[in-house]
Each structure stands twice: as structure tokens, then as C-alpha cells.
Amino acid sequence: MSPPYRVLLHNDNYNKREYVVQVLMKVIPGMTVDNAVNIMQEAHINGMSVVIICAQVDAEDHCMQLRGNGLLSSVEPASGGWLEMVVVEAMRGGRRWWYYRRKSRKMSPPYRVLLHNDNYNKREYVVQVLMKVIPGMTVDNAVNIMQEAHINGMSVVIICAQVDAEDHCMQLRGNGLLSSVEPASGGC
């Protein structure tokens, strides 16, 4: 049996919560409304959430389907934090799936990665950098973020854990964009 992989859902600030729940139920086999709501809320509060744990090929397929529906998603090996999670093993259609169920534990507070407007970089370049640096960033979301920064002087790129936020910020800066990080106190 191949090692399990996690499908992660990242908060994006653009998709409505109801839409995220609908997509999760459409894409993930056996997903209940309650599980979809819990996953959406955890991603909204903490910047990301585990959607499902399954074989690598299935995880990559689920991730691509989530992205195809406009959600920010990524895949990672389920090693490391595997024992810290509460999972439910289920058989569906002859395949073995591991569903994540929330386990109460203290999470690091979420941080916002901010993009600031500048008068130097072309809009197309900003969109390209956002798609290169932020996992699962779609063209539409990158364009919306760029336009918001251009019009309002600043835009939230992503909300995630502090270490990831600082990494994204440094990558944006390394590509010539103006970026900063701030605590996401009070939610999104």
C-alpha cells in the first residue's frame, strides 16, 4: 500500500464559504455537510485545513479538482503529523480513504501576507509572481489581488501560519514586489 498523502485547503478570501462547502461535497467522495463546514471553517480561521488523507494519485486528483473549481489546494505527504491527527478509515468503492476529523489542539495564530502597490512592476508581472509563489493561486485570484492592491494600495494575498506567511513574503520580495506580514487578529 502506498504511503498516505494529505490534501490541504488554503484560505483565499475570495470564494464564499457556502461555495467552498459545495465544492468539497462535490469533489470528495463521501464528504458530509458537517465535515465540509468544519474543514472550511478551519481553513478560514487557521489559513489551511486538511481535507482528506488518501493515496498520492487520489490526493493529486482531488487537489486538481479543487483547484479546477477555484479553490486554493495543495498536496503533501501525511508523514510527520500523521500520528497527531484523528482519522477515520473507510472503504468506498473498493478503495481505502482516510478522512480527517478535527482534533482540538492549539494552533499557531494566522498571519496575513500583504501585497503593496508600487509604481514599478507591470500588472502582468505581479500576476505571474503571485501564481509562482503562492501554492494553488489561480489566474483569476491573482488578477483580483493585483487589482485590489493597485486600487486600494494594499491587498491580502493569503492567510496562513506565521512561518509560511514570512516565507511567502520573502519570495514576493525576492521577485521585486512590495510585501509585508501582519497578524490576522480577529479573523479574515
TrEMBL record:
<protein>
    <recommendedName>
        <fullName>Adaptor protein ClpS core domain-containing protein</fullName>
    </recommendedName>
</protein>
<feature type="domain" description="Adaptor protein ClpS core">
    <location>
        <begin position="108"/>
        <end position="174"/>
    </location>
</feature>
<dbReference type="InterPro" id="IPR014719">
    <property type="entry name" value="Ribosomal_bL12_C/ClpS-like"/>
</dbReference>
<feature type="domain" description="Adaptor protein ClpS core">
    <location>
        <begin position="3"/>
        <end position="68"/>
    </location>
</feature>
<dbReference type="GO" id="GO:0030163">
    <property type="term" value="P:protein catabolic process"/>
</dbReference>
<dbReference type="GO" id="GO:0006508">
    <property type="term" value="P:proteolysis"/>
</dbReference>
<dbReference type="InterPro" id="IPR022935">
    <property type="entry name" value="ClpS"/>
</dbReference>
<dbReference type="Pfam" id="PF02617">
    <property type="entry name" value="ClpS"/>
</dbReference>
<dbReference type="InterPro" id="IPR003769">
    <property type="entry name" value="ClpS_core"/>
</dbReference>
